[in-house]
Structure formats: structure tokens, C-alpha cells
Specification:
mainly alpha; 4 helices
Length: about 140
């Protein structure tokens, strides 16, 4: 029961930190897709980098108990960064695929790219929680 309470507490804290990272990501994504009219794939990758860095730094310092016997924090960040790039590439391709299908079916409205970003966010947020928890506390 104690472990479940700790897990839930960490998850709630992570949601707030990750939410802040999402605002950073979403703001940059909106600028890249809206003003610069970049494709979803490129916009999602570029906007994610500052956000994932922020979430990693704050989460490892304030939410999770860092295992100092394992990898260094720089090594953990490198692992997290590579994981994130693979995940972001996959969800960006999924987002681009969904966008293309919707557009090809004659559905187009001004906030479609933003809605696609919102749809893929919960999946990545939950995955990120467990990956960063494992990296911080176990490795």
C-alpha cells in the first residue's frame, strides 16, 4: 500500500512537471506548424527537445529518488534522449499519418494539427513516467 501511495504521488507530481513541459512543447509546436507551416513530423520533433530536457531535469531532481550507484545523470539523460527521439519519431509519424488520412477524406479545419498533438499526448506522458522513473531510480 505504501508503494502504491508513493507511485501515485510521484505520478501526480510528474503530471504537473510534464504538463509544464507540454506547454513548452505545445507552444513551440503551434509556432512551427502555424507560423512556419512545418509538417507535423518535423514540428513535433523540434518542439519536443526543450520540453523533454526540462521534464528530465526537474523529474530527476524533484520527483524520483536518484540511484547514485548506477549510471551518471548525464548517461541517464542520454538514454532518455535516445528513447525520446525514437518515441517522438514514432508518434510524429503516427500524427502525420492521421493528418494525411483526415485531409484525404476531405476533412480540414484550422485546429486539426493541434487536435492531433492533443490525441497523442496521453500515451507519451504515461510511457515517459515509467521510463524516467526506471532510469532515475533503477539505473
Amino acid at each position: 500500500m505504501k508503494e502504491l501511495k508513493l507511485l501515485l504521488t510521484q505520478f501526480v507530481k510528474f503530471l504537473f512537471v510534464s504538463g509544464t513541459g507540454w506547454v513548452i512543447d505545445f507552444g513551440l509546436y503551434s509556432i512551427l506548424t502555424g507560423i512556419f507551416e512545418l509538417q507535423i513530423l518535423y514540428s513535433n520533433i523540434l518542439s519536443s527537445i526543450p520540453a523533454i530536457t526540462f521534464v528530465f531535469i526537474v523529474s530527476t531532481k524533484r520527483i524520483f529518488k536518484e540511484n547514485k550507484d548506477g549510471f551518471s545523470i548525464k548517461q541517464k539523460y542520454l538514454i532518455y534522449f535516445v528513447y525520446q527521439m525514437v518515441l517522438i519519431l514514432l508518434v510524429s509519424l503516427l500524427g502525420q499519418f492521421l493528418y494525411t488520412i483526415i485531409i484525404n477524406n476531405g476533412i480540414n479545419f484550422s485546429f486539426l494539427k493541434i487536435i492531433i498533438k492533443i490525441i497523442i499526448t496521453p500515451v507519451t506522458m504515461i510511457l515517459n513516467f515509467f521510463v524516467i522513473k526506471y532510469l532515475a531510480e533503477k539505473l
